[in-house]
Specification:
The chain has three helices and 23 strands. By secondary structure, it is mainly β. β19 and β20 form a beta hairpin. The longest helix has 13 residues. The chain is elongated.
Length: about 300
């Protein structure tokens, strides 16, 4: 009577054998476990390592014994209990109380790109010999000066830096004096002396500029496309729910934008960047939620 051969389940053997004639030293196998680490393949019971999988399969066993015809038991995976979440269990994130629109508007700290700085320097040289007829209502455009043409005999004392609001403190980047009071900040005397930069307020031409916006998880960016911007004469202010923009560019052209925001921002972590072809207002969200399809109300 012919005996049916069965498979040996010892690791690394894989041969068939006759259970009636199973000798003690016929099976050559691996007693350890296969290990795959950092491209190397080997058996935990052997020292030989290889990077080739076929060569790994052909590594000869390091132990001898009888063939094993019992198939190893497969551990059953424990079925995880599915927890059903009811809609009533999901609580929306708590929203901030919306601040008042009447809160004081604070100027945003500004950054002027090197390319715009170079352009403005060239414009000053080329326009230095052009005489502009000024009226008595002309105002000095330098930050912190505010003198009128009737006070031209008085020196221009101004701030060449940018306003900074950080952790409750308000100060100019060019000065060391810091305060927590907004009115005291506005009254802070300039730190540099120079010539007045006069401009007639009635000569400004209000125009429309192309503008758009986009948002990320923690920020809203408002971009105005305008060339030859004069940062010293621009005014970008905001409070947590309102944005006021006045951009002076070109030949005394002015773009105005005064809107209530759809969300809440953190003015102290917001800023404005002036470049040769655009002005970008980067507003930090006070709460990480998506704003509606339009960022203003």
């Amino acid at each position: 009577m012919t005996m049916v051969e069965v498979n040996c389940y010892n690791k690394g053997c894989g041969k068939k054998f006759d259970p009636s004639s199973n000798e003690s030293e016929e099976c050559v196998y691996h007693s350890g476990e296969p290990v795959f680490h950092d491209v190397y393949k080997y058996w935990s019971c052997c020292d030989k390592k290889t990077t080739d999988f076929t060569e790994f399969l052909n590594i000869k066993g390091c132990c001898r014994s009888k063939h094993n015809g019992e198939k190893p038991a497969v551990e059953e995976k424990k079925s995880e209990e599915k927890v059903q979440i009811q809609p009533s269990d999901i609580k929306p994130p708590e929203r901030m109380v919306r601040p008042s629109e009447s809160e004081p508007l604070v100027p945003l700290p500004s950054i002027i790109s090197p390319s715009l700085q170079k352009l403005l320097k060239n414009l000053q040289i080329s326009e230095g010999s052009v005489d502009v007829e000024l009226t008595k209502d002309a105002i000095c455009q330098r930050k912190g000066c505010g003198k009128s043409k009737s006070e031209e005999d008085q020196p221009c004392i101004y701030h060449p830096g940018s306003p900074i609001f950080h952790e409750g403190l308000k100060f100019w980047s060019c000065c060391k004096k810091r305060t927590t009071d907004f009115n005291e900040f506005l009254a802070q005397k300039g730190c540099e002396k120079g010539s007045h930069a006069w401009a007639n307020p009635n000569e400004k031409k209000v125009v429309e500029c192309r503008h758009d916006w986009h948002q990320t998880g923690d920020q809203v960016n408002f971009t105005v496309y305008a060339k030859k911007v004069h940062p010293d004469r621009c005014l970008i202010r905001c409070n947590p729910v309102k944005l006021e923009v006045e951009i002076v560019f070109g030949d005394n052209q002015v773009f105005n934008f005064n809107k209530v925001l759809a969300g809440i921002i953190d003015p102290e972590k917001s800023k404005v960047t002036f470049s040769t072809a655009k002005v970008e207002v980067s507003m930090r969200k006070a709460e990480f939620v998506a704003w509606p399809s339009t960022f203003v109300l």
